[in-house]
Amino acid sequence: MCNKEAAREIFQYAVNAVMPQNALRTKFECEADKVIVEGEVFRLKRDQKIYIFGSGKASIEMAKAVLDHIPKERVAGGLIVSNYYEELEGIDVMVGSHPIPTQKSIDAAKEMLKRMGKLSEDDFFIYLLSGGSSALMELPAFGLKLDEIESLNALLLKSGMDIKEINTIRKYFSKIKGGGLASKTRADGIVLVISDVIGDDLTTIGSAVMFSEKKDRELVLKISNKYKIFDKLPKNIQNILSKGEQIDTSSDKIYPHFIIASNSVALEAAKERAKALGYEAKMVTDRLEGDVKDVALRIIKSAEAYPQKLLLFGGEPTVVVKGSGKGGRNSELTLWILKMMKDFDDFTFLSGGSDGIDGNSDAAGGVVCKGDLREDIDSYLENNDSYNYLKRENSLLVTRESGTNVMDIMVMIKE
């Protein structure tokens, strides 16, 4: 028996739970003389205006949610950098590029630094941070050219690195990352965060534009050697690392960060919906990471170990891209599950990106049953062409871009 519709419903319910409007509803409020986030109070001068800034794939929806809680006359303006354009009342919007930064990303970074740099010590801002910021805003350090940054990012994204490793390297060669933006403003403020990384690591989310830290050359070299990419790096970048050049983007000021939505919140909602549909469900982990094939093996072992009919997983696998096909980590994971579970009884498996985007495709991922297995699956895996395999089987998970981003959600239903 195939339960694709149940899996889709559970996935969508989980995504809805981490939409900014829902995530902020009980966590944020603005009164005449204070802003309150998760019970913590930030005092304002009575009727003091508030600037709204932000970046990331969820930043527009986050801005809408925050604006719902702040009277219009209290908003002093601001800037949001997203991967798409939508008009916001009282706040400007710029579009950067994702997943590879382009000139639009540089223009957005310069404008964000300019505007936040103009704030005084008497101003107050709310910064809205979500995944995608690393590419949407970029300002190369060391005099690096845009084409060198583009080459670096393309190499990192195909290497099989996890996001923490990718962003460690990105930060080293950027003026805005690793606290670079925080170091340019004198105003008081807070940062509201939708987490798209395992463990909600603030040094990784959005490459930590508002979270100050020292950059680690030795770690950059270690990661480069681990994935054997040093010799593939642009020559200028190799020279910078070899000479030990380094810039300091750290800030003396610490801005409070609040995680308002994360993968674990989404999985709890998924469990709630599964229960309503009559399933005894178990949330196994929200920390799946590593190569997509290894993640598939972990999921299968869990399916064998736990008696519950419905298992939930979250995290963010990685893929080493060697082929020229279409797809991403979620669609590829569904193919590995399909291949490895050929001797199992009937099952349904879904893997989807909460942001509605999977790699270089227009799908969020895929949802498969045992009956979707075909003899040519290996050729699609070898070419990283999971999208077209799933499309042929009518097994794509297509949701459009969601407006939030808390990594990936996986649903396993055993029959």
The total beta strand count reads 15
Just give the CATH class of the largest domain.
Alpha Beta
The total count of helices amounts to 14
Strand content: 15-25%
Shape: globular
Tally of separate domains = 2
**Which structural class fits the helix and strand makeup?**
alpha/beta
* Gross CATH architecture of the largest domain: 3-Layer(aba) Sandwich
As a percent range, the share of helical residues equals: 25-40%
Specify the biggest β-sheet: 6 strands, parallel
- Uncertain stretches: none
Mean pLDDT: 96
Structural overview:
- The protein has 415 residues and is α/β, with parallel strands linked by helices.
- The protein folds into two domains: 243 residues, Glycerate kinase, MOFRL-like N-terminal domain (Rossmann fold), CATH 3.40.50.10180; 145 residues, 3-Layer(aba) Sandwich (glycerate kinase, domain 1).
- 34% of the residues lie in helices and 22% in strands.
- The strands form three sheets. It has a six-stranded parallel sheet with strand order 6-5-4-7-8-9, with helices on both faces. It has a six-stranded mixed sheet with strand order 10-11-15-12-13-14. A three-stranded antiparallel sheet has the order 1-2-3, with no helix packed on it.
- Strand 4, helix 3 and strand 5 form a beta-alpha-beta unit.
- Helix 12 packs across helix 14.
- The longest helix has 15 residues.
- The protein is globular and about 65 Å long.
In short:
This protein is α/β, with parallel strands linked by helices. 34% of the residues lie in helices and 22% in strands.
